[in-house]
Design a protein that fits this description.
about 150 residues, mainly alpha, 8 helices, about 0% strand, globular
């Protein structure tokens, strides 16, 4: 049982890391991160590929994921403006990682997770407290009533 639990945690970590890299790539590409994260978390791609039990995109490189995400945005008429100031570039990976872990723990769709914890709350958490990932996840879970094991 312990081996299966360790494997599950490893897969969750890898999936959270993939999403962290997607957010980081979006930031490094100059996109307005607040708008990108909000649209991404509510996107069909996120619902279909990242919220599912398994998808090849959960361990895919960020550029391959971004290609599919940006095509979906384009097809739906969603434009993500560029942000030359890059206010949130330092918390991009952190936000992606934490959001994914919260989705995995809560089993709520990402669409609901972003409504529960808006992007600016995640940014404030990063800049004010800058907890280690596990501590941040525990703190947010406790404040939002999400079971954490």
């Amino acid at each position: 049982m312990s081996l299966l639990n360790d494997m599950r945690k490893h897969v969750e970590y890898m999936t959270a890391s993939t999403q962290g890299h997607i957010f980081q790539f979006a930031s490094e590409s100059g996109y307005d991160l607040e708008r990108f994260v909000t649209e991404y978390m509510k996107s069909d791609f996120c619902n279909r590929e990242m919220d599912s039990d398994y998808s090849m995109f959960q361990n895919e490189v960020d550029t391959a994921c971004m290609e599919v995400i940006m095509k979906e945005f384009k097809d739906k008429g969603i434009t993500i403006p560029h942000d030359s100031k890059q206010h949130y570039q330092y918390c991009a990976f952190y936000a992606g990682f934490i959001y994914r872990y919260l989705q995995l723990l809560s089993q709520k769709p990402s669409r609901e997770v972003i409504d529960m914890i808006p992007f600016m709350d995640m940014v404030m958490n990063y800049y004010l407290d800058h907890y280690e990932y596990e501590d941040a996840i525990k703190m947010i879970c406790k404040s939002k009533g999400i079971k954490y094991d």
